[in-house]
Amino acid sequence: MKDVFQLKDIEKIAPKEKGITSMSVKEILQSLVDDGMVDTDRIGTSNYFWAFPSKALHARKRKLEELESQFAESSQKKEALQKSIEKSKIGREDTAERAALIEELAALRQKKEQLKAEIDKYRECDPDVIEEMRQTNKIAKEAANRWTDNIFSIKSWAKRKFGFEESRIDKSFGIPEDLDYID
Questions:
Q1: SS3 for the chain, per residue?
Q2: How far is residue 105 from each of residues 70, 111, 121, 129, measured CA to CA in Å?
Q3: Cβ atoms of residues 6 and 48 within 8 Å
Q4: Among 35, 45, 164, 167, which residue carries the largest CB count within 10 Å?
Q5: Rg of the Cα atoms in the chain
Q6: How many other C-beta atoms are found inside a 10 Å radius of the C-beta of residue 10?
Q7: How many angstroms separate the CA atoms of 93 and 97, rounded?
Q8: Which pTM does this prediction carry?
Q9: Strand pairing report for 46-50 and 39-43
Q10: Chain mean position to CA 10
Q11: Residue 25's CB: how many other CB atoms inside 10 A?
């Protein structure tokens, strides 16, 4: 189409020439505008629609150029990768010596894993691990004594404030009778 139309013109022409129901013309036209196949512009209070054949041709040419550029780039990448593969294969030919070295590497890796497992087995005797455990125990002991002190403080406060007996407080809150600081 080389002319410019208004919506009402298209609603009259489309059913006659293309067999489109006049009710769906507006939806189809909006779809074409969204796809960039038809241009639209508002001038005053009217909307005008047009589509020039040269625009579609230019769009196809641009897309073709873009695809050709991507194809060329991909071809260069493929060539570079092929060269890299060929370069990597040099010195990796399957020889008896290479097979022996690969077998030796696998054996050494397996031995490494066995030695790691043995080290983990004796880890509890490691001086660093023992020292770390001592530090962790010291921190836990300090925390337990701090909470024991907090419990004694609250019990003392409750006895003074409310006049409760110590045995009643212990029983109400599930505090063991032999609760004491850790030495």
A1: CCCCEEHHHHHHHHHHHCCCCCCCHHHHHHHHHHCCCCEEEEECCEEEEECCHHHHHHHHHHHHHHHHHHHHHHHHHHHHHHHHHHHHHCCCCCCHHHHHHHHHHHHHHHHHHHHHHHHHHCHHHCHHHHHHHHHHHHHHHHHHHHHHHHHHHHHHHHHHHHCCCHHHHHHHHCCCCCCCCCC
A2: 43, 10, 24, 31
A3: yes
A4: 164
A5: 43
A6: 20
A7: 10
A8: 0.36
A9: antiparallel
A10: 49
A11: 19
User: Which residues does residue 39 pair with via DSSP β-bridges, in sequence order?
Assistant: 50
Rounded-to-integer distance, Cα 171 and Cα 174, Å: 5
Provide the residue type at 160 as one letter. R
8 A C-beta contact, residue 180 and residue 148: yes
What amino acid is encoded at 36 in this protein?
Answer: G
Residue count (the chain): 183
Q: At 3, is the pLDDT very low, low, confident or very high (cuts 50, 70, 90)?
A: confident
d(C-alpha 101, C-alpha 89), whole Å: 16
Please answer whether residues 160 and 166 qualify as being in contact, where contact means their C-beta atoms are separated by less than 8 angstroms: no
Residue 132 and residue 102: Cα distance in Å, rounded? 40
Structure tokens at 127: 């001086």
